[in-house]
Each structure stands twice: as C-alpha cells, then as structure tokens.
Amino acid sequence: MSDHQYTPESKFGKWFNDRLPLLTLANHLTDYPTPKNLNYWWTFGGILTFCLITQIVTGLVLAMHYIAHADMAFDSVEHIMRDVNYGWLIRYIHANGASMFFLAVYIHIFRSLFYGSYKAPREIIWIIGIIIYLLMMAAAFMGYVLPWGQMSFWGATVITNLFSAIPLVGEGIVTWLWGGYSVDNPTLTRFFTLHYLIPFLILGLVVLHIWALHVPGNNNPVGIDIKKPSKDTVPFHPYIVIKDGFALLMFMIVFAFFVFYTPNILGHADNYIEADPLVTPAHIVPEWYLLPFYAILRSVPDKLLGVVAMLSAIFILAALPWLDTSKIRSAVFRPLYRQFYWILVADVLILGYVGAMPAEGLYLLIARVATAYYFLHFLVILPVLGFREKTLPIPLSITEPVLGGSPNLATAKNKESSIIK
Amino acid sequence: MKNFLRIFYLFILFSGVQSNSIAAEKIEYLKTDWSFKGLFGKFDRAALQRGYQVYTEVCSSCHSMKYLSYRNLAQKGGPEFTEAQAKAIAASFEVKDGPNADGDMFTRPGKLSDKFVMPYENVKAAQAANGGAYPPDMSVLVKARGGGVDYIYSLLQGYEDPPVGVTLDDGVYYNKYMYGNKIKMSNQLSDGLVEYSDGTNATVEQMSKDVTTFLMWAAEPHLEARHQMGFKAIIYLIILTVLVYFSMKRIWSRIETEV
C-alpha cells in the first residue's frame, strides 16, 4: 500500500493502532496517491458506492414493511405507498435507485473499455467488477419480482424457464428453482431472501474491488504507469473526495428528478396489475438495463444456444484483458480502437432498443446483426487490432504532454515502439 | 464540464430508448390540461370532489377501489372533504363486520377507518355479473395503463359505432382507444348523468376529466407532497452543488491542473 509508515500521534491512538491498524487504513485511504488527470468519468466509482449504500438502506426500511407472500406482496407494496410514513419516497428511491445504479455501472464499465483499465496489472479488479455486475443483475431481477405485479410474475417465469434449456436436467432445475411446478409463493420467498442477501455479497466484493485497485493504483486517461506519489498524483483527500462529491451531487440531481417527478417512467405499467398466472401480458419485457442481453437471447432461434449466447455476452467481458492484445491502454492513443469503441457503444444501444421491441421482422434482423457484431468486436476485432493498429506516441508522464512541440516526443516514440514490440 | 454534457446526452439516449419501448403502439390520445402535471402540479380540489361523485355514482357499481379508505377522502392533498363530510360519506355505506360475541356476522354503517366497500363479494361474482370480464380494481388503474391519465380520459370518450366490417359479439363494445378496440364495458357516461352539487355542467368531457383526476389521486395519494418535496430537494441540491463546485475549484487551485 502506501510507501511511508504511519504512526498515530496520540498515545491511545498508537496503542490502538498497534492492535488493530484502523488508523493506518484511514491514513492510507486519505493519502492514497491518485493520478491528478482523472476526468469525470472516473467519478462513477464513488457514485456507485453511493448507489449501493442507498439501495441497502432504503431496502432495509422496505423489508420492514414488505410481506413476502404471493397473496399479500402486492397489497403490502400499496400499503408502503399509501400508509407508511414517507413510504412512497423510500420505495421510489429504491425502484429508481436500481436504474440509477445500472446507469452508473454502464458508464463505469464503458469508461474501463475506453481507457483500457482492465489491462495488466488490473485484471483482478476487472474480473471482480464483472462478478459484481452479474450479482447486480441477479439482485435487480429478483427485486423486480417482489412487488408481485404482472411483469414481476411473467418476467420471473420467462427468466427461470431459461434454465430448462439445459439438456437432461433442465426441467428438474427449474422445478427446484421454483420450489414447485410454477412460479408461486415458494419462488417469491426465496427470491426475497436472495434479494436481501446479494447486496451484502456485492458489498464484500466492492471492498475487494477497491482493495485490488489500491495495489496498482488508478489507471488514468493517458493510460500510462505513473510513479506514486509524484507530481503526477494528488492525495485522495481532499482533491478526489471533493471532486467525487461534486459529481455525486450532479448525479443526485438527475436521480431526484426521476424520484420526484417521473417515478414510474422507468418501470412498466403492467407491474401495477397484480400477478395473475392465468393472464399473460401482450409483451413481456425486462427492465431497461437488461434489454441488450434480452435482445441477444431472442436473436438466436434455438433456446439453448440463445441462453449460451446471452451468458457468453457477459462472460466474454471477463476474458477481455486477454482478448485485447494491444499494449497501449488508453483509446486516446489508439485511433482505430477509438472508432470501434464508439461502434460498440452504438451496437449495445441498438441491442437495448430492439430488446424492447417485439422479436419479429426488421427488429429481429437488426438484433441478429447487432448480436453478431457484439461478438465480432470482442473475438476478432480486439485481438487483431492489437497487432495491426498504428498507435500514437504516448507521453512519459501526465505532466509532460505529448503534443507536437514536446521535447519528449522522440523518447515517447522510442518508448512506444519498444512497447509495441 | 464538456464531459457532463456527454453524460447527460447518454442519459437522454437511454431514457429515449425506454420511452420508445413504452409507446410501442402509438395512438393519439385526447389531451386536456391536467392540473397535477409539472413541477408544481397540484390536484384541483373541486375536480377531485366531483370525480369522487362520478366514481361513487357511476363506476363504483362495478369497480372496486380496495386500497382506499374513507379517511383518505379527508386527507391532505386529496379531495379534502371535511372530516364531518367524510364521516357522513362513510356512514352512507353498509359495512359487513364481525363475527360478534355470538359468532354472527353483522352489518353496520361505515367508519372513516373502513376500506371502500367493494361492489362484489369476490372476483368470481364480479365476473358472473359482467359477462365474464372482471371490472379491474381502480386503486392504481391509471398507473397500470400505458397511456396513464390520457388513456383513461380518452377511453371514457372513445365509444363509437364500429366501422364497417367489424362485428361485435353480444356485450362487447367498440372503443377507438381500447387495445384491440373491443371493450366489455359499455359507454357509461352521458351528458347530465350526474348532478354536480357545485353547479358545474356535467358534460361527458367534464365528467371524464373529473373522474380521471380522482383516479390519479387514488393511485398517487401523495403526489402533491412528492412535488413539493421534490422542488425543495432539487433546489437544495443545486445550491449545494454550486457551493461544492466553488470549493472544489479553490482546493484544486493549489495544483496546476484543471478540474
């Protein structure tokens, strides 16, 4: 961790710290040398921590009033909305908080993709991040089931049924997951239990994620290794704390707008109809943040292969540090990758759009092309690009820019060619 | 700051995708000016009271409203009947209670704490009385329909003779705003159907607007409190953001980096 040894000033502090080095930890966290050129895309880590804590705190209060029973869940949610003091506020924060959480996590992930933050020596941070993302999806999906509306019920039916695609044991697994022969009360109670558990697993993984981050330190927009501490870094407190705080407040304004003025726009109207196993909704759609994967699932005609494609789309991310063969991290110095990066962003947005549409005609065709491109990007373009791309010269340090007149241009070029070989 | 514009742009894109998905079937609904929309939106008290009258005289013979209690009628941010009025309204309904000390069920006049009395004993009874279709509970109805208040408002005025070539079964009616155009509820509103105590002319349009306003309140009883708190919260956040921005500038001025 930090290079210098920390000793508390007070006698008690020293006594305590010798036994449990909490003060050393606090000192490490405040002094933690951070690249000073981090842009606002880097503030989403802090924002995500805020989102997680918000979800846990509001979720805790909701759990005090919610009743996990197929006959009472819908009623208890309405009870929260009407009769619990500020219940409407807490529920709307929790429901929109999930969307905000995913908005932030997508920005966080795409920031990593742009600046190559997943590359050595940060592979473990990245993989832990992917596991967190997977758990987030599981938690969000199960949370959406709890109000026991029509979309809850039918969403749960569709998603759990995916497991039936597994050969031989599929049907058995689905029955085991449901705790019966259809989505019913046993399904609801176990989803509630898991929905309560998973956020704490995420919390633990977030600690590991940050721990793993603090070993090599932050990547930065230039994507080069920097000396720490040096004139390229600033201590985490107060510089990064205040900057993250400012960005968080901006984020909270958007968040508040949703909660107070359009609290239901991100949800589906059908979820205000109580679950009815005998009535199937016209279109079963997941929440917006799962739509790209839903599009991938539906674009494959075979059920098993569709499930495999959908899961691969997520797991392929974990292999990213090895699929991307370029030694240069930041897309700033990779003119070709930068273009493919934006195509990928567009591709995922398109997948999200067609995921919300009925899987037929033109939509299905677009979904198939976009799915194919998604895999092409990771499996072909990225590996090949690392060998073929002519990258731009990278600077030696953050404080020394790489612009035309820089005295370091020659050295930078030398370094670049040595890196590329 | 440029980056923030980008973030914002991305965010707009996302919300664009979402709203598109909701409006998959685009129908132009009838528009009216809702007093409860916008940053300071509040319910029109008189419209809520009239809307309650329409609900209770027309809708409530088939549609339940199981999440509302009579006390809600006197609650702040709602129709705001006086407590005496709400008590009188409650007392005008017969509520089944019990069992009493002898083990028998009995009926008594309603109290403020009672839920709205349901028109039918159970779903099956409701279906039997309505040609197999269950008249949906109206407590959260406007939130349970894609078009929200505009949809309900339009639907109530959307009855037409079926176009040539469309044949309707017995007990099925044609409504141009209904999904699939076929609805099992017949046209309920006609000019002058109810007599408003405040002298408002009870046209179909007026009644539709009033009852839809009432349904909006029923689905979102804390809407006014939400708007008021939201305005304060956002103003507070903006002021705090500006202050934090300047302190950030000040702190970062110690080093030669733009923030």
What can you tell me about this protein's structure?
- The complex is a heterodimer of chains A (421) and B (259).
- Chain A has 421 residues and is mostly helical.
- In chain A, 64% of the residues lie in helices and 1% in strands.
- Chain A contains 16 helices and two strands.
- Chain A has a two-stranded antiparallel sheet.
- Residues 18-24 of chain B have low confidence and may be disordered.
- Chain B has 259 residues and is mostly helical.
- Chain B is globular.
- Chain B has seven helices and four strands; from the N terminus they run H-H-H-E-E-H-H-E-E-H-H.
- The termini of chain B are close together.
- Chain B has two domains: 2-68 and 115-220, Cytochrome c-like domain (Cytochrome Bc1 Complex, Chain D, domain 2); 222-259.
- In chain B, strand 1 and strand 2 form a beta hairpin.
- Classes of the chains: A mainly alpha (421), B mainly alpha (259).
- Chains A and B meet through helix 4, helix 5, helix 10 and helix 14 of A and helix 1 and helix 7 of B.
